[in-house]
Automatic annotation (TrEMBL):
Domain of life: Bacteria
Keyword S-adenosyl-L-methionine: yes
UniProt GO BP: methylation
Protein name stated in the entry: Methyltransferase
UniProt entry tagged with the keyword Methyltransferase: yes
A molecular function GO annotation: methyltransferase activity
CDD domains per the UniProt record, alphabetical: AdoMet_MTases
Length: 180
């Protein structure tokens, strides 16, 4: 699947992708700067999309670490399965609210998310955030890209501390929420 096909998928499903373009390298780097993947054993990505964030994670992933990528678009999943054939990367075509079904009682070091929480039904959004909080290892982080600072209040319902940063180097400019 080429970039034009991925862009078509992105624009055809704005309510589930929640983005006008794919995440810029600057935004991915900013998001990853809040993590230390050299010590991580299990990492989860919610909303794999075109694999921009996935690629950033894979570039820093230790060979003995595992990455689970949740994506509801089967087209994006097919493209990512080809792009990331590594044994320690698992592309999961399922909703992030089902994260607990795939963890096999393991705890997660980092959850990276680009889910469009503004467009997700409240009951599903709450389930995703609750499942994410429960899945995290003590000291684990939930790191979210979002386009509205107001979402910080949502994350405060589930995490003890929420800090934010902003980057102009993305279209549109974005916030990175770091939740613990």
């Amino acid at each position: 699947m080429g970039k034009s096909d991925l862009l078509f998928e992105l624009y055809s499903n704005l309510s589930t992708t929640g983005a006008l373009t794919f995440s810029s390298k600057s935004l991915v780097n900013k998001m990853l700067s809040y993590s230390d993947l050299s010590k991580a054993k299990l990492i989860v990505e919610l909303g794999g999309g075109d694999g921009s964030i996935t690629q950033g994670i894979v570039d820093k992933l230790k060979p003995d670490a595992e990455l689970l990528v949740f994506e509801i678009s089967s087209s994006f999943c097919e493209a990512m399965e080809k792009q990331f054939p590594q044994d320690n990367v698992r592309i999961i075509n399922d909703s992030a609210e089902n994260i607990h079904l795939y963890l096999e009682n393991k705890k997660v070091d980092y959850i990276f998310s680009s889910l469009p929480f503004s467009f997700i039904a409240p009951e599903i959004r709450d389930e995703i955030l609750n499942q994410s909080r429960v899945a995290l290892e003590n000291g684990g982080y939930f790191i979210q890209i979002c386009y509205s600072f107001l979402l910080k209040n949502l994350f405060k319902k589930y995490f003890k501390t929420v800090s934010s940063s902003f980057t102009l180097k993305n279209l549109p400019p974005a916030f990175v929420m770091v939740c613990k």
